[in-house]
Amino acid sequence: MNIDEPIPVTQEILSKYPREQRYTLTILQDLQREHRYIPREALPLVAAHVSLPLAKLYSMATFYKSFSLSPRGKNLIKVCDGTACHIRSSLILVDEIQRLLDIAPGETTPDRQYSLETVNCLGSCAIAPVMVINDTYYSKVTPAGLRNILSDERSAINET
Fold this sequence. Notes:
Number of strands: 4
Shape: elongated
Strand content: 5-15%
Helix content: 40-55%
Structural class: alpha+beta
Radius of gyration: 18 Å
Order of helices and strands: HHHHEHHEEEH
C-alpha cells in the first residue's frame, strides 16, 4: 500500500477501467481499499476519467458508510449500536474504547493503527453486543473482554 502517493496510485487504478460512469463506484472502492480512505486529491482525477461532476463524486463518497475521505487506521473497529446491542450496553464498549485508545467514533489514533466507528447494525443480534475488528467478529463483548481483545490485537500488531 502506498498511502503517501495518491496521484500515481490513482492513475494506476484508473488505467484498469474504461472511461465509463458505470465503473465509478468500483473505482472508489479500489481507492478505499488501497489507501484505507479516498484521498481528496484523487477525486478530480476520477471525475475527469468518468466524466462526472466533482460534486457527484463527493456525494457518492459521503453517502456510502464504507467510504471515508479521511485516513483510517490499519485496524477498523466497528461497534454495533443497533437495538439489541444498544440494550446490551454497546455504548459502554464505545466509552471503554475511547478511554483505552483515546479516540471517539469517527476518529483514528495518531499512529493510524485504529479507527473507531459505531454502526447501526451488524446483523448479529443474537450475540449482542457485537464488535468487529477488520473482519473478525467478537460476540457478547464485555468491558473486561474488550480490554483482552484490544490487548491481543496490539500484541499481534507488535509481532508483525
